[in-house]
Amino acid sequence: MSDREVLDDISHRRYNPLRGSWILVSPHRTKRPWQGQKETPSKTSLPVFDSSCYLCPGNLRAVGDTNPAYPETFVFVNDYSAVKEDQQDYVQPESGDKSSLLLQAAGVRGKCYVICFSPSHNLTLADIPTEMIVPIIKTWTALYASHLPKSSPYYQVPAAELGITVPGDQYTYMQIFENKGAAMGCSNPHPHGQVWTTTGIPEEPSLEIQNMKEYKRKHGAGLLKDYVDLEITKEKRIVALNDHFAALCPWWAIWPFETMIICRREVHSLPELTEEEQIGLAKVISIVTKKYDNLFETNFPYSMGIHQAPLDGDPEDRKACHLHLHFVPPLLRSATVRKFLVGYELMAEPQRDITPEQAAERLRNLSGDEVYRGNLVCCPEA
User: Is the pLDDT of residue 28 over 80?
Assistant: First the structure.
């Protein structure tokens, strides 16, 4: 039997070199009956324009500002930011007991943005044409570049026409992400994402940076560069591929249909992409999101996040980083049955049933050119 045939049949653990952690894989559990919670399939009959939506062009937001009649993307400072630029400083007080060891806290300042991907209320990234995803990537890039130190060769003056404002401080890290669907906590279906910029590096990218840096020290090459080259050779976990980016179900994936989009060239951050690479990224994002929707013929929920070099800090950290995107969707068996991280997964380690190879094969065999519901009406008149 081949390795694939053996691992498709036995319980086993897989190592994640990005996090330095392990996951339990139990492929035989896909045969068990499901009598647990079921989600409500997402609705797909949204209007092009919703007068009650806080993100649609020309509408009033909750704090009283009016959105412009934007034609492509629109950026504004989050009205309910998770971190603030102006707040009281906090210094851990000295104590005579072990509080400084066991009760640590640190203040975090930062700036949060919302990015509307399109003026059309009824679209998702799966519906937006590839040529309209490119401006989204350019907006992500402009946001990142405008928050770099001015000494960086990739620094850009904040683009006021895009809604990008001057940061109040030099922040360390920028997390760009999108939550799609009510199952992922998204409170507004208008196509949009968020950007949180903070004074420290968050836990997840910090783990990745440390492991990528250690790999580079030991092997003299980039972890994700070696990994993406290997996956292209193996082919088993590839979902979509072009000259610039590969989409794949990672060997160590936790979620059933989790994917990563990895730049085939060792690029540290978005501003380093060429025009051709931006188009290549847009094409792969379009293909992956269409395949997701076609899998269970529903508006497939997910959280997507971009991991790239920190804005500021250790030059070695930046050189170790490799631009990639994580797509983490919760659905397991159908549009109504989702994966839960509970029990063993909370108390011991993550576990999955369907193998990444099986997930990749299912996604690979789906159309990435058209979405099951057909073309939606878009672009409301200004």
Answer: no
Residue 35 has what pLDDT?
45
Q: Catalytic: 192?
A: yes
Q: Which one of the listed residues 12, 147, 192, 322 is annotated catalytic? A: 192
- How far is it, in rounded angstroms, from Cα 215 to Cα 224? 10
Q: Annotated binding site for UDP-alpha-D-glucose: which residue ranges?
A: 29-32, 62, 78-79, 179, 185-187, 194, 339-340, 344-345, 351
Position 34 confidence tier, pLDDT thresholds 50, 70, 90? very low
Q: Which residue from 179, 202, 210, 205 is spatially nearest to 327, judged by alpha carbons?
A: 179
pTM exceeding the 0.90 threshold for the entire prediction: yes
- Residue-wise pLDDT for 71-98, tens only, equals 999 999 999 999 999 999 888 888 889 9
Domains of the chain are 42-86+108-365 (3.30.428.10)
Q: What are phi and psi of 171, to 5 degrees?
A: -90, 160
CA distances from 105 to 84, 99, 108, 241, 322 (A): 16, 10, 10, 44, 30
Residues at the annotated binding site? 29-32, 53, 56, 62, 78-79, 121, 179, 185-187, 190, 194, 208, 307, 324, 326, 339-340, 344-345, 351
pLDDT bucket at 33, cuts 50 / 70 / 90: very low
**Which residues have a Cβ under 8 Å from the Cβ of 369 and sit 6 or more positions away?**
287, 290
**Residues 52, 378: Cα–Cα separation, whole Å:** 18
